[in-house]
């Protein structure tokens, strides 16, 4: 089972009364092949909504969400600027300039399409190439559409849970919301950790 | 020499044993315990020694050579040394020492053999034979006694070493070939065992070695170092970020200069993407600005602006700036170029707060998109939608986006650029490292950005305040009326002067006819107009000069002297006037005929003197350039006589018509001349009868002439007096009865 190594300690909160530190803003990018539900993941994360309708993202869409992350007994507010990039297709690759300056990346794959999972490595490499110090998490999306036994097999095949690289994989579902928030929280924690170093 | 041998000896001692002196007999056993055969270390020990020696000898050789060359001074020492060692060897010197000594001696003897004196040599030889063999034999014996071959070999090593040393001196080439194959291994072994020592040993000569290496073959050194140079530099940068840049910084200018000298084009190519786009961007703006200025120069606004600029004494550009100031800054963002994170934002209070993060993100995305997909190397510098504009200025690792309502001026853009320039210059490095934490942003950036709002807002406020308005109005009025007053005053003065000049010109009679204008400009009096001659022109200038010098004005005489085409009617009038004038006296009867430029005078001028004065008078008339005089000085005589029958006044037409005709023709020819009729009688009969007859005869001739068409006024009869025959000769009487004719010039013809 692909799960984050550490227990999550993030708390969702829109009240910032107890915050003392200033809000840190971070840019994260979602990249992956087309129609792997990158936009849906963001919509689930930000609005907690889901739609079956497929609307292709053209270029890039920027969204924002603030999170409060507990870090060393303090609560740090983080302002995530989420860049939803146009999906990678055979004809058009992801524009590398959009990735510039991103502190973190979420590489999204579609569990129902193995080609998208095979593309994950390429996206990770691209992301690391442009931001060598960026944090990366992998979202294996549409987990709700795949039966459990098949899931296990897939995970065996595409295991990016390599602790050395610090890349965690999450079995997410934009439809059910499973692990979506966890993933974003984990990434935010990594970002804060990286910046405080 | 001595020092070298002692040094070698002590080295050997140090490495082989810590206690001495030691008896030769026990020496083998001792060595045996120290260096067990089975141990791997035991083998390395001698090698190490050997290496030590080699290293030492290397350093020593030059010295040795030096000393050897001064062999004369050395030789006397040997005996002393010899004696010392000999006694030592006899008593309890080690085998090693003995061997060393032997080797040493051999060496010296060998080298000195040529130069040394025979006595010395024999002496040394004797020593050699004395000590050398005896001691070796002794030791061999003792070794055999212990029957430990290994030990004996070990103990022999120093000997070998000394031999080697000797051999090195003797024939270096041979030694080199022998030692070379194992030398690397030796060094390796040694450095593994005692690396600091090895390092310190090598360290002494390393700089020299490198220098020498560079001298010998710089290429080889370069090849050796080159591959790691980049890594070395990046490592140094990692250790101390600024060191490399500091080191290179000072030379950078020179380096670039040299490179430009060497390969200008490559440099241009390299810099073009940066400078080219900057310059083109700048030029595009400048050209646009110039274009718009040129376009609007002649528009009503442009002219108005020009006038206002002149009036207010400010530059036109400033006015354009003021005109275009009716815009409003809503937000200013300083954004990280790559990540699109807000570094600093300024949003005036009371404005609708903009979602800065989102705007910055999207702007960055658009910029990236434009840079990637449309044209690389150029910048997106404005986004506009409807009434809103977002001018964008990029520099370094960040860019400034200003959300503006209305049309910002070019000055505003320049201002943005200046402020961004300051920010990048001062805080470029901080901005480069910005990672989303607003606490790391330097505080002064905000105030710098705020300048953009303050400056722009203050401008319209000021101009809208009432005192400012009044003040401006006052300036306006002042600017309008003061020049007007000055101009008016000047106009008055000029007018007065002009009038004065006009009066003066009028006073000169010959000039009064002509229309001459005078204009007065500051410091200058201009006369214009036309006169028919240079004389009049000069006359006018003289008159005006008097006035001008009084008023301190410079005279500019622009009067043109022209040949005025005189009115022909005036000329003819003048000619007629003169003609009638000249025709008054009885000796002149002229007819003038004027064709343009030419005057023809016909008629009679009986007095020769009059002729000249008439000519001169007509010549003076303007327009008369040529005079043709065609006049006679005498009146023609008329020979014709009309004869009459005796006692009759009846005119016989048949006889006399031709005569009448001739007279009539003559009168026709000279219309200005009159005719006098005179009657002559034959004297027959009474005086009264004759008088009567004469009168009647005259009258009849006169009528006959009038009948021919002769103007009656031109005919004068003088028949009252009796003209008797002048020749009472035997002439027939009828010849006395006649009327004859005399032409005369009438006086006052035309009156």
- The whole-number mean of residue pLDDT values of chain B reads 73
C-alpha Rg of chain B (nearest Å): 72 Å
Largest sheet of chain A, order of strands side by side? 2-3-1-4-5-6
- How many E-type strands of chain A? 6
What's the SSE pattern of chain A?
EHEEHEHHEHEH
Beta strand % of chain A: 25-35%
Low-confidence blocks of residues of chain B: 1-42, 60-91, 112-131, 456-464
Describe what you observe in this structure.
The complex is a heterodimer of chains A (197) and B (751). Chain A has 197 residues and is an alpha/beta fold. Chain A has a single domain, classed as Rossmann fold, CATH 3.40.50. Chain A is 29% helix and 26% strand. In chain A, strands 2-3-1-4-5-6 form a six-stranded mixed β-sheet, with helices on both faces. In chain A, strand 5 (135-141), helix 5 and strand 6 (168-171) form a beta-alpha-beta unit. The longest helix of chain A has 17 residues, at 180-196. Chain A starts with 23 loop residues before the first strand and ends with a helix. In chain A, 45% of the residues are buried. Mean pLDDT of chain A is 80; it is low at 1-19. In chain B, strand 10, helix 23 (608-620) and strand 11 (624-632) form a beta-alpha-beta unit. Chain B is elongated. Chain B contains 25 helices and 15 strands. Chain B has helices spanning 2-16, 24-34, 40-69, 71-74, 77-91, 95-112, 118-146, 149-170, 172-193, 195-216, 218-239, 243-262, 264-297, 300-312, 316-323, 356-374, 410-432, 444-464, 466-507, 509-512, 534-550, 568-582, 608-620, 653-669, 687-707, and strands at 328-336, 342-346, 382-385, 388-395, 398-405, 516-521, 524-531, 554-561, 588-595, 597-605, 624-632, 641-643, 674-680, 715-718, 738-744. In chain B, the strands form four sheets. A five-stranded antiparallel β-sheet of chain B has the order 2-1-5-4-3. In chain B, strands 12-15-13-14 form a four-stranded mixed β-sheet, with helices on one face. The longest helix of chain B is centred in the middle third of the chain and has 42 residues, at 466-507. Helix content of chain B is 64%, strand content 14%. With 751 residues, chain B is an alpha+beta fold. Chains A and B meet through strand 1, strand 2 and strand 3 of A and helix 16 of B.
